[in-house]
Amino acid sequence: MRDLLAVAVLGIVTGGCSSQLPTGAEPVYPVTGVVSREGQPVAGADVTFYSAEKNRSAFGRTNDKGQYKLTTFSSNDGAVEGSHVVTIVKLALPPESTPAADLETEAYVPPGAGESTQPKAPKSELPERYADQATSGLTATVQTAGPNEINFDLK
Known about the structure:
Blueprint: H1 2-15, E1 28-29, E2 31-37, E3 40-41, E4 46-51, E5 56-61, E6 67-69, E7 79-80, E8 82-89, E9 138-142, E10 148-149, E11 152-154
Parallel strand pairs: 2-10, 2-11
Antiparallel strand pairs: 1-7, 2-3, 2-6, 4-5, 4-8, 8-9
C-alpha cells in the first residue's frame, strides 16, 4: 500500500512539471532569423508573425546582431505551421529630459509649465509600412520540417 501511495505522489509531482502545450493548442516549430536594413543589423526591433489561418501570432525581439527567435506559448518555442504575414516595428526611445534647475534659482521652471500635457507619440525608426499587416509586404512560411531560418532585409 505504501509503495502504491509513493507511485501516485511521484506521478502527480512529475506530471505537474511537464512542458506541454496549452489544451487545444496547435504545435509550434522553432523560427529564427536576422532583420537588417541596408545591410546593417536592426537591434531592438519587434518581429511579429500573424497566422490568419490558425488565428495565432508569434513574436520576438532582435538582439544587437539583428537576430530574433519567435515565441508563441513559451520562450523561443516558435510559431505555428503555415503562411504568416509579418510586421517589424522599432520605436525610438523618448529623449531624456533635462534636469530641473535648482529651486532657489531664477532659472527654475515648475515641471510641465509651458509644455503640452499630451505625451508625445513614439516615433518609428523603420518605415511605417512595415508596422502594418496590410502594408508590410512581408510574408513567411513556417514548415514542420525545419530549419525555419527566415531573414528580412528592409529597404
